[in-house]
Amino acid sequence: MIFDRAYRQRLETDLARWEADGVVAPAAVAAIRAALPPVSPGVNIAVVVAIVGGLLIASAFLAFIAAHWTEIARLSRLAILFAGIVVTHGIGAWFARTERPMLADLCASVGAIIFGAGIALVGQMYHLGSDFAGGLLLWAVGALVAAALTGSRGALAVALVAASIWSSMRVVEAQDAPHLPFLIIWFVAAGLALAWNSRVAAHLVALAVLPWWIAAAAMHTDHDAIFILGGGAALLFGGGLALTITPWQRLASAGTVLSVYGAFSLATVAVGGVATVNDSFFGSAPAAGPPLWAIGCSVAGALVAFAAGTAARRAGILAAGIGIALALVATGAWKQAPTGEPWLLYAAFLCAMVCIVVSGILDSSRPRIVAGWLGIAGVIGAITWAVKGSLLGRSVFLAVAGAIAVALALMLNRLLPRTQP
Predict the structure, then answer these.
(1) How far is CA 310 from the centre of its chain?
(2) Do the Cβ atoms of 134 and 160 come closer than 8 Å?
(3) For all residues of the chain together, what is the average pLDDT?
C-alpha cells in the first residue's frame, strides 16, 4: 500500500514533466490517469491512534485474563479466549466491509496473537508444557490460516515469527540441521505473498528465511558455518535475480525483494568472513567439510544468476553472478591461515563486493548499490583493524588494491563511450 502510493506520486511527477516537455500529449496523459485505479487511503493520525488503542486494549485483555487466570473456571477460561478471537475477527470483518483495510489487518493480527496466548494458557492449564515447540507450531499454523482467510499481513508476520522460533527450537533439540519442515510453512507463506501481490508480504517471507539459515549454520563450526551462510546468501541473491527476469509481474516483484535481501546477506557474510578469518568465533572443532545440501545451494545460486543474466542479456545480473561466485570461492577457501595473512581471501571478498556495486549501477538498483558499498566498507574496515597479523602488510595490500582499482578506472574511462551532455 505504501509502495503503491510512492509509485503513484512518482508517476504523477513524471506525467506532469512529460506533458510539459511535449513528450506525451495531454489526451494521452488524461487517458493514463483515467486508467489508473484509485489510490487507497494512507495511514493518517486517526488510523495510527486507532492502531495504538487496539494494541493497548488487546494487551489489557490478555493481562486481565492472566491476572485472574486461577480464579476463573476452566470452561470459562476457554470461552473467554474463544470469545476474544471471535470478537477481534468480527470487528476486523466490519472494518473490511467499511473499507478500513489497515484496521481490519490490525484486528486479524490481534486475533492471531490472542490465539497464541490462548495456546500457552491452555497448555499451562492442562499441564501440556512438555512440548513448547509443538505449541509454537500450532500457533504458526493457526496464524497462517487466519492470514490466508483474511489477507492480513500482520497475521502472516505472526505466523512466520512463531514458525521461526519453532524451527530454531527443533534444531537445538535435535542438534540437526537443516530443519526441513519449516520450509512447508515458508512456501505456503510465499504462495500467499504471490497471491496477494504484496511487497510487504514478500519482505516478511524474505526475512523469515534468514533465521532458518542462521540456525542451520550454527550447528556447524568454523569453515562449514561460513560456507553455509554464504550458500544461503548466494541462493537468495541468485534465485531472486532469476525471478526478476520472468514475464510474470508478481514473480518479478517478489524476486526483486529476495535479491535485495540476498545482496545484503552476501555483504554481511563477506564482512564476517574477513573479520573472523584470524579469530574463530564459531568453535574450535575441526571442520568436517560442508554438507552436500549447502554445496548444492551455493552452486545453484551462482548458476541461476549466470543463467538469468545470459538469458536476459543483462550485464548487471552477470556482474552479480561473478560477485556471487567470488564470494563462494572465498567462503570455500575460508580458514585460519597458519602464518601470514589470507591475501587471496581478502581480494576475493573485496572483488565480490565491487561486482555487486557494478551490478547495481548497471541495473539501476539502489539497494544493491548500497549493499555493495556497505560490504566494501566493512571488508576494508575488517582488513584494517584485524587483531592479528601485520598492520604494515595490510596497508601494503590496501595500497596495491587501490592502485589496481584506479588503473582499472582509467582504462575503463578510455574504453567506454562517454555520455554527451
Answers:
(1) 26
(2) no
(3) 79
